[in-house]
Amino acid sequence: MSKIFQNLKYDLPSGLVVFLVALPLCLGISLASGAPFFSGIIAGIIGGMVIGVISNSQLSVSGPAAGLVAVVLSAISTLGSFEAFLVAVVLAGLMQIALGFMKAGVIANYFPSNVIKGMLSGIGVIIILKQIPHALGYDRDNEGDFAFLQLDGENSITSLFSAIHHIDLGATLIAIIGIIVILLFETSAFKKVSKIVPGGLAAVIVCVLVSELIFKNFPILAISSAHLVNIPVPTTTEEFKALITFPDFSNITNTPVWIVALTITAVASIETLLCIEAVDKLDPEKRITSTNRELIAQGIGNTLSGLIGGLPITSVIVRSSANLNANAKTKLSTIFHGFLLLASVLLIPSLLNKIPLAALAAILLFTGYKLAKPSIFVAMFKNGKYQWIPFVVTVLAVVFLDLLKGVGIGLMVSIVYILLGNLKNSYYFHKENYEKGETIKIRLSEEVSFLNKAALRETLDHLPEESKVIIDATNTTYIDFDVIELIKEFKEIKAPLKHIDCELLNFKGIYQINSNFVSSTH
């Protein structure tokens, strides 16, 4: 408990920054999904206040995800109503809970780091591409739309050129002011202040004051309502109740509802596990999240969201990265952001509607840069082609397709390079470097699988005649049967034909090769 209070000075301001980022995204995703306007806010509130409490991730922030927009849009059309779709969300939540108890979260351990880094950098590039138009005051595309092909008929690239031809001077200046404030808070001169007030929060405050106190007095600079946050303002209890939709469980026997539920379960669970894995890698304290508990937390959140009219929820890297960049320490920041989403709708919607979208674009541009810094690309290139090729492929696929397709393609390329790496001849013998009479030693690794068979065969086939070779299994705990057969064949047949003296060292237990030609221990 004392640790929670000790970190309040970090977590509360961080939660406020995440709230400011999440608010327009929740609304934008609702619009992009063809769902009721308030459904994204409900999902954001539950993602913070419910999932934030149950999950043991300290930095991850959950809410409606851009990756599910296409699924939701198609499902509502297929099922015929939003009420029927909500039944599928409830069922998906229950399925996620079951997956958590079945320990399905273990699949997160099989995501290669180069693919995770590629996913993060790809999302960073998307954020930058999508937020530049908002920074210039070109707000035709919804905040929650992260797809390359946009709903307005443009794409992430053409939208940049359109934005350049429709620059709003006031919005652009607001974005520039916001970026300057954030950069100032990154300098050593503001180090003490930034520990209490994150740069993103300071940027929003400064931008709102400039917009309201200065720009409003100059028509050419005034920010129009089209470039401001726009959340519903219910004035009565009845209007507030009208914002909430409930599921129609008479649709629970419909097969299409179950198909949609399975789709949401798969997409939401994979996106969550990817995000959790990525956030754990970004966490300065390197804390490890229980992926099984996360699936249960997400399942409870989605069940509740479906019951009260919310969109499907996943852990979201954009909000999580903003949370991390705002110096959050514990999940209290996530919970606080959910509380603020609820309070904002009930208490201060009119005040929030004064925030320029360009000010929020400044925060997201900085977040995107942090995820896709040039130094990350340079570091991956230095790691060699077996790392950087899957990394670059993942980045490009995430940007031009979507997160799940991008990660899937990255995984396939990564697997190909893992196979190539194993097939690569680590012991290839170059005859020009060999001096007659020299002993060649081949040390087997701790585990020798069938993937190493081709490399070992290549090595043995290139050994010079009349040489001496020692195959050392001192450090080996596992040898695949196919590899044992290969070594036995070489020892008994190929080596004598080339007059090679082959000695096997420390092939223990079941891996001993017994024949008239073999000595298993020396």
Furnish the topology, listing elements before pairings:
Layout: H1 2-6, H2 8-33, H3 39-49, H4 51-54, E1 61-64, H5 69-79, H6 82-101, H7 113-135, H8 158-164, H9 169-185, H10 191-194, H11 199-213, H12 237-242, H13 255-282, H14 291-307, E2 313-316, H15 317-325, H16 332-346, H17 349-352, H18 357-371, H19 374-382, H20 385-400, H21 403-423, E3 439-443, E4 447-448, H22 453-461, E5 468-472, E6 478-479, H23 481-497, E7 501-505
Parallel strand pairs: 3-5, 4-6, 5-7
Antiparallel strand pairs: 1-2
Helix pairs in contact: 2-3, 2-5, 2-15, 2-16, 3-14, 3-16, 5-13, 6-13, 6-14, 7-8, 7-18, 7-20, 7-21, 9-11, 9-18, 11-18, 13-14, 13-15, 15-18, 19-20, 20-21, 22-23
Task: Give the gist of this structure.
With 522 residues, the protein is mainly alpha-helical.
- Our measurement of the CA-to-CA distance between the termini, rounded to an integer number of angstroms, reads 61 Å
Main sheet overview: 3 strands, parallel
Name the overall outline: elongated
The sequence of SSEs as H and E is HHHHEHHHHHHHHHHEHHHHHHHEEHEEHE
* Poorly predicted spans: 515-522
Helix content percent band: 55-70%
Instruction: Output the strand order for the largest sheet.
Output: 3-5-7
Structural class: mainly alpha
* Tally of distinct domains: 2
| Radius of gyration computed on alpha carbons | 29 Å
Note the total helix count.
23
Q: What fraction of residues sit in β-strands?
A: 5-15%
**Overall pLDDT:** 89
DSSP summary, beta strand count: 7
